[in-house]
Amino acid sequence: MQSYRLTKxxxxxxxxxxxxxxxxxxLFPFIFMFTTSLKEPxxxxxxxxxxxxxxxxxxxxEGFDExxxxxxxxxxxxxxxxxxxxxxxxxxxxxxxxxPDVTYEREIREVRPTxxxxxxxxxxxxxxxxxxxxxxxxxxxxxxxxxxxxxxxxFVSVENPEVSVLQNVRLSQPxxxxxxxxxxxxxxxxxxxxxxxxxxxxxxxxxxxxxQLATSVVGGYAFARLRFPGRDNIFLVYLGTLMIPFSVLxxxxxxxxxxxxxxxxxxxxxxxxxxxxxxxFLMRQFFITIPREIEEAALIDGASRFQILWRIFLPASAxxxxxxxxxxxxxxxxxxxxxxxxxxxxxxxNHVLTLSLNVLRGRASDSPNLILAGAAIAILPPLIIFILGxxxxxxxxxxxxxxx
Length: 404
Description:
ten-stranded antiparallel β-sheet, 12 strands, elongated
């Protein structure tokens, strides 16, 4: 018995670990998007990329008017914090032709040619004439050739600015601390006017969801409970419209909007989408599962069709309504192609969120943190709606298989 329990615990633990790993793997892009939206622009281009936002630490050093960034520098055999006082110092690497394995680094501006600038001496090496430079080593001037050239930074001690070290800035590790810049969200809203786009998107989404719920409930009840000539054939034709690609409907639908006068109008984003064959089919299939005896009893008691629908069918169809509402919300909120066709790019007042993000992609191409901040604003509402409505999906699936 104990071995069975131990085996079950180990099995469950293994399953949870595997599911957790896959969940983190799926969530990582969203986590990285959110953390990057809180970074500074230069931090987003850091290689290798880092998950959490960081900013360099600066400090005031005696003799300098502005704060200097801190870096970790190798000094006296250990890592110490030095301030970057001067960047991009041209450094030459020099070697004695008689001992080329030993090299010396000197600032190019401090090195003088051997023989002077007008009569510089040269030496043949491997058939090529190399210029000679006077390099002082331990108080002795030795003619050397320049092997290579690089650029370094001058780092000074914070406590004693007289102490300095030359080191490659790109290869130096800056002193940083964890930070966050939530003002990126305010900046992206001010940059592209996302506040107006959010209002438009919310209005369009709410009206589309309400319209689809209303038409689907009424249509689903009619096809499920009412008897009229050609009901099944009409339903099949209506259901067949699901197989028509949206790209085929673009031109006639746009011509219809031109004829009505709704081009570049918010009504074109709402009215054509309040009718949905999928929603009607979903509600019809759910209404069929409700026992007919309940409806007949209500009719005997004198209830009208509308009262039966409002007081009996709607309360029982909460899972199906939540499922349809969630799908409608996600579709309306993320709609891009139709708004791009029917709303002019210059009409910012009628832009929805997807159009504003498309424009932001070009205006803030050098600031990925702002682009991802806008993406986070667009993703957060449907993500919350999906999480809240997720449990209704299970209820809808399980309840659809139970008939009274």
